[in-house]
Amino acid sequence: MPVGKIIKSLSGFYYVLSDGEVYQCRGRGNFRKKKVTPLVGDIVEFKAENRQEGYILSINERKNELIRPPIANVDQALIVTSAVHPDFNALLLDRFLVLVEEKRIEPFIVISKMDQLDHAQMEMMENYKTLYEKIGYPVILSAVNDTEAMEVIQSHLANRTTVIAGQSGVGKSSLLNSIDSRLCIDTDEISESLGRGKHTTRHVELYEISKGLVADTPGFSSLEFGELETDQLAECFPEFVEVQNDCKFRGCLHFKEPKCAVKAAVDTGEISKQRYDHYVHFLNEIQNRKPRY
Asked: Is 272 annotated among the ligand-binding residues?
């Protein structure tokens, strides 16, 4: 039985990439009975008489799944943030990082518009680059027509399935269009109060780019921690994970507990005070969110 990956879902049809060919398939009726919906990114077994008439027979277990955008088996997220216009927002960047860590998606960070900075701003971005690279996140500083940065970004895309994340105005469209003109991301402006955008893309599609697959949808349309619990939040901060086994209390939330290894690491400068403050901000948000019924 042939195996492939769904690269597009549109009007009840699923387009499956297998051995360099794309097959138009429908889902089996028992998927509806089981309330299972095939997603872009799913690895599936299918049967096809020809490239226009196929049926998806089974869906392999997913390693992760996003609701918005609806996509599965994502390897990494390219998080685009700008140095200016809009100004660099470390709290928003850390929010994106938590969201992708929760889904066990590897992030890499692109800071755009570096060509618009003065010396002091440039130094600040270099310091942020050092901070996030110390945690283990790749960081690329990018400017307009920066061929070297583009080559590094393209090397990250190879052999991976990638989604894009970042608020409006940070340069996602120009960045991706410079990599491949087929990728044209279009979003409405993000509400400043809610921090989320409404996407005008009507379907998710994976494009073969730089020997990898890139989704043409601009990442997360909700930036809320809808599924994350308080005891899971610290797992989304890799630098906390490194030291938290030395906390006195099992299940330490690294907030008000005594003899906390994470807070001790903040005091010594091993963990960024700003990152810790953002953790506390998110912790309070999760603790105070309204229950869903």
From this structure: no
The CATH code belonging to domain 3-60 is 2.40.50.140
252 is annotated as contributing to ligand binding: yes
- Cβ neighbors of 130 (< 8 A, separation 6 or more) are none
The answer to whether 168 is a known ligand-binding residue is yes
115 is in an annotated binding site: yes
Q: Which residues of the chain have pLDDT under 50?
A: 187-201
The annotation status of 40 as a binding-site residue, yes or no, is no
Does residue 269 contact residue 259 with C-beta atoms inside 8 Å? Answer: no
The annotation status of 247 as a binding-site residue, yes or no, is: yes
91 three-state secondary structure? helix
Q: Is residue 11 part of an annotated ligand binding site?
A: no
What share of the chain has pLDDT > 70, as a percent? 90
| Gap between the Cα atoms of 217 and 276, Å rounded | 31
Q: Is 25 annotated as a binding residue?
A: no
- On whether 18 is known to bind a ligand per the annotation, the reply is no
pTM: 0.87
pLDDT reported for residue 203: 75
Any known ligand binding at 170?
A: yes
Which superfamily is assigned to 66-215 in CATH? P-loop containing nucleotide triphosphate hydrolases (3.40.50.300)
Does the annotation place 82 within a ligand binding site?
no
Is residue 59 within 8 Å of 43, Cβ to Cβ?
Answer: yes
Q: Tokens 């895309």 map to which residue? A: 157
Over residues 6-24, the pLDDT tens digits come to 999 998 899 999 999 999 9
Q: Is 20 annotated as a binding residue?
A: no
Confirm whether residue 236 is marked as ligand binding: no
- Domain 230-288: which CATH number of 1.10.1040.10, 3.40.190.150, 1.10.40.50, 3.40.50.620: 1.10.40.50
